[in-house]
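Fold it.
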Amino acid sequence: MTLPVLPVPFSNGVPVPQGDLFRVHRERCGRQLEAVCQLVTHQLGWELRLEINRDLQRSEVCRTRDAALDTSEQWHAAMIEKGWR
């Protein structure tokens, strides 16, 4: 998967969604779950938000584009290891 180059975000203090970095799915107790890692602008750089069925599970602010991409790859790999597809 090729990710676009992330420019330094302009921030006026209002977070602006920039798109999804990954989506994975899993069935649990007969219920379909969807996890989405969303990239959002932040005053200090970039924010990653991991939501499962639209409930925020985890958030992290990264100061650089490389840190944001590395973090999303780590989260994605960890979820795949736990059975998400």
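Strands lie at 17-28, 31-42, 45-52, 55-62.
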